[in-house]
Amino acid sequence: MTKSVVKMNDVQNEIKKIATNLKNNKDEGSKKRRIIAAAEQIFAQKGFFETTISAIAKEAGVAEGTIYEYFENKKDLLYAVPEQNTIEYADFALNHLQGIKGATNKIRKIIWFQLDYFRTHRNYTKLMILEIRRGPDYFKSKAYENLKLYSDLILTIIREGIRDGEIVSDVNPYIVRDMILGTIEHISIPWLVFGREIPIDDLVEDICKVIFSGLSLKDMTF
Amino acid sequence: MTKSVVKMNDVQNEIKKIATNLKNNKDEGSKKRRIIAAAEQIFAQKGFFETTISAIAKEAGVAEGTIYEYFENKKDLLYAVPEQNTIEYADFALNHLQGIKGATNKIRKIIWFQLDYFRTHRNYTKLMILEIRRGPDYFKSKAYENLKLYSDLILTIIREGIRDGEIVSDVNPYIVRDMILGTIEHISIPWLVFGREIPIDDLVEDICKVIFSGLSLKDMTF
Amino acid sequence: MTKSVVKMNDVQNEIKKIATNLKNNKDEGSKKRRIIAAAEQIFAQKGFFETTISAIAKEAGVAEGTIYEYFENKKDLLYAVPEQNTIEYADFALNHLQGIKGATNKIRKIIWFQLDYFRTHRNYTKLMILEIRRGPDYFKSKAYENLKLYSDLILTIIREGIRDGEIVSDVNPYIVRDMILGTIEHISIPWLVFGREIPIDDLVEDICKVIFSGLSLKDMTF
Amino acid sequence: MTKSVVKMNDVQNEIKKIATNLKNNKDEGSKKRRIIAAAEQIFAQKGFFETTISAIAKEAGVAEGTIYEYFENKKDLLYAVPEQNTIEYADFALNHLQGIKGATNKIRKIIWFQLDYFRTHRNYTKLMILEIRRGPDYFKSKAYENLKLYSDLILTIIREGIRDGEIVSDVNPYIVRDMILGTIEHISIPWLVFGREIPIDDLVEDICKVIFSGLSLKDMTF
DNA sequence: GATGAATGAGTTTTCATTCAT
DNA sequence: GATGAATGAAAACTCATTCAT
């Protein structure tokens, strides 16, 4: 269980640690990895209930029974899919943030990064948003724990921004985080469903405009 | 298909018109309504695939075959559920906005209203967020058209705010709308899944704080 | 639950009551009866585990799904098979005993009757001996309750024989009953398995000879 | 194939010969013996069809494939289990009968011995009664041949009793044998299924009472 | 001889949908 | 319009058996 982590370094270390662990057993039998890859694809395409084990087996080039050598059951396989990606995701984010100064810049980068990741990992994203993050089971999964780390990373950046006087002090960091994640997700759904392209750079600008400056005219806030 | 509507009054009229239509044939046979009510409940509780027609029939107090008198098939029934609610929802929103002056106040009201509606219509909300808004079928449904009206309503408010000089002119109204909807939705998911209570008033404040004033210190934006 | 019954009349009445009940709902839908008849045949032929639901459905001339309209699952169907036969069996026995005087004659009749029933109901018998009477589930089944009545009938006959001075007083009636049943069953197994014919009359004589007179020479018992 | 043996000594010799052979290759690789021991346990516990090869392999501490080095298939393994026990059983019986004079005493001993063996070898007994002795395959197995020797032993004792004038001459020895075996078996089933204790001494008395003296009052047989 | 990963045929069970009444 | 018995296709999962190492 990840307890609430507040220091940037703590979050970083946690992510790095898990990422390294996962990378090490990444090649534990190409079979397992092929099955997960196939599952990611088919689950994302058809949804959990309309995916058949037989279709995954075919795509992975293994027999149906083989899948049950590696995974308890269909649900188990579903939750196994994002385990790798979620931590990889957090790790990527971390790398992208290297050398960036200031909370504002970091947040902008986070927004850009997430949109970009969604764009380049459509299957994974569909799976996460449309299939996995429903039902209480998700909140007990490894994937959730991993994403929690990423989510903590954002929280930490916001808090440090406040501490350093770069961000106004009276905002609720949780809400800011949820706004960032929620906005991106909401914007992404039609893209995911219809497979349209995402004009990332414009989006980042538009989102940051609101997040940083708000809607009100300056003199109205006085 | 609803074409893009931009005038407040246009949106209002459209919503009123549909709402009135629906209200009129609301009592077209209590059977149909009982089936829809049962479907809403069971679909929300168990999800689309784990709901059986037989369970809905039982809950509605009709025979299984009867359901097929009113609905083509299971999916058809699923999409029929939100048809009523979505327009009712838009209509409610409209009523709540009556007499409120200024885009800022209206937006604040919208945020409050939506959180409140989610809270008081948990089944409907679960259904919409977790079941219906996936798969391209949704975007062809009546429910989508209805929600589009609500969504246009928000857009119009923002645009009028810009026109009236109450809202800064360089924001993208679509993004603002998506931020509002996305944030509320993202915050709501754990509540929906776990059935926790929602501290609405605090949330509205926290969200509005960011939406209206942004994160940056005033003098930093110069 | 049948409590231990000791009076001949009590046993008789109990059996008659249940037999009548069963006869009444014997025609409750020919489908159910056809399924049970098919199940009896196939289960007896192949054994429980090597019987497929599909084979039973085919034999019964119904769809596989139909079987599940009437029975919870395969095991449930297995136990449903002997429910009718067991009480019918007890009832037949009762009828055959009508007008027979004396415990000795009744016991002889019981032995004859049971061998004859086995001969004429080979499927039922195979099922009972080889499939059903294993596993603790049997002892909770209706079939067990019914056979218990039959078994009580034998006990009662023995006890009345003792009471009337026709049977020696120092025998354990339970053991006598088990000897009768066990002997017949043991003799029957090869017949059931190989489908040979049973020379009933000789068997009855041979069994009765031992049961009534024993192995010892008369003067040796003094 | 064992042809019908009638002389006590012949039966004895046959049993001794086979018993000695088996004892010699008893230690032919501890693997095989461990597999058989594991199979006996699991088959008895779960029944043939609900036992998995994997469970036996685990219990025996070998790999699944290893089992197929020693046995053709699952059925083959099932029938291999009682091969040892059955002859051991016959051999034990023989030893217990040493020095006992008279058919009556020998039969009493046989009854006691068999009940005792059942009690102390519950797994083996469950396996024999509930799993193996069904289906025509059994009658072609080594176990059947071995038990046939034991069965012949009983027959021989009865015949010698008749010859020596200790047993009445007009009984059918086969029936007597089947009565002994059938009675004990029938009494044992509930014990085996529920794991209750067996009050052997009382049982032996009660059974012998009937077998030797019969139910009829002495003067009634004249 | 020993292993155990891989196989894939085979089975129970579910359930949306139909249609005769 | 209403019913609900009947259908049968479809799918997850199991496990005896094989075979390359």
How would you describe this protein?
Four copies of one chain form a homotetramer. With 222 residues, the first copy, chain A, is mostly helical. The first copy, chain A, has one domain: Tetracycline Repressor, domain 2 (Orthogonal Bundle). Chain A is built from ten helices and no strands. Chain A has helices spanning 8-24, 30-46, 53-60, 64-70, 74-97, 103-120, 122-132, 142-163, 173-194, 200-213. In chain A, helix 1 (8-24) runs antiparallel to helix 8 (142-163) and helix 2 packs across helix 7 (122-132). The longest helix of chain A has 24 residues, at 74-97. Chain A is globular and about 65 Å long. Chain A starts with 7 loop residues before the first helix and ends in a 9-residue tail after the last helix. The relative contact order of chain A is 0.12. Residues 1-5 of chain A have low confidence and may be disordered. Chains in contact: A-B, C-D. Chains C and D meet through helix 9 and helix 10 of C and helix 9, helix 10 and helix 11 of D.
Set out the fold topology.
The structure is a homotetramer of 222-residue chains.
Chain A: H1 8-24, H2 30-46, H3 53-60, H4 64-70, H5 74-97, H6 103-120, H7 122-132, H8 142-163, H9 173-194, H10 200-213
Helix pairs in contact in A: 1-5, 1-8, 2-3, 2-5, 2-7, 5-6, 5-7, 5-8, 6-8, 6-9, 6-10, 7-9, 8-9
The structure holds a DNA duplex (21 and 21 nucleotides).
